[in-house]
Fold this protein.
Amino acid sequence: MSTQPDRWAELTGGQAGEKYAERFARLAESGHDIHGEATFCTALLKKPAARILDAGCGTGRVAIRLAELGHHCTGVDADLSMLAVARRDAPALEWLHGDLAHLDALGLEPDFDLVIAAGNVIPLLASGTESAVVRHLAAVLRPGGLLVTGMGLDAAHLPLPEPPVTLTEFDHWCGEAGLVLRRRYATWGGDPYRQGDGYAVSVHALPEQLDPRPA
């Protein structure tokens, strides 16, 4: 595990699961669409029953909806209070307790069609672990698989006084992990991203491996 707590743990003390779930339940009751991430990811996928890893899954909101849409989902999170809610609400899904900086310790196979890290997962990682996390997320993708992330880029879109990660840094870590930026949006609804926007939804891909055999 990491030698220091991630930024999320520093903010919440690892006890935010029920309050986090209640917040989204209230949003849903008031008529808000709380499934934008799942809808976005499903539109990207080329097959109806994709294998998806929800990295930093929290209470499981995204993974549960993706499973309802027919996909095969695994969730991973380091916050046991969040996982407790996920396991209660969807006991049939696979929920793993683990640090994304040491995702390789969970022994996941590189067969995921899509990895999603929503909810400011990347900015809330422990400082200094970001490049390792991106590398581990890329390592579980199959050739042609997608890494989909959403992150705030200013204080208005983060539970932090200032953003700890820039898009330039993030794209660099993705490039080091063999990922290529395919698209970038300003919202999960697909609004185009413009320089200076406070939020970014990024779609990076692991290129298809070329077949070395002669035709």
User: Anything to note?
Assistant: Residues 47 and 124 are 31 Å apart (CA to CA). Strands lie at 51-55, 72-77, 94-97, 112-117, 141-152, 180-185, 199-205. The first helix runs from residue 7 to 12.
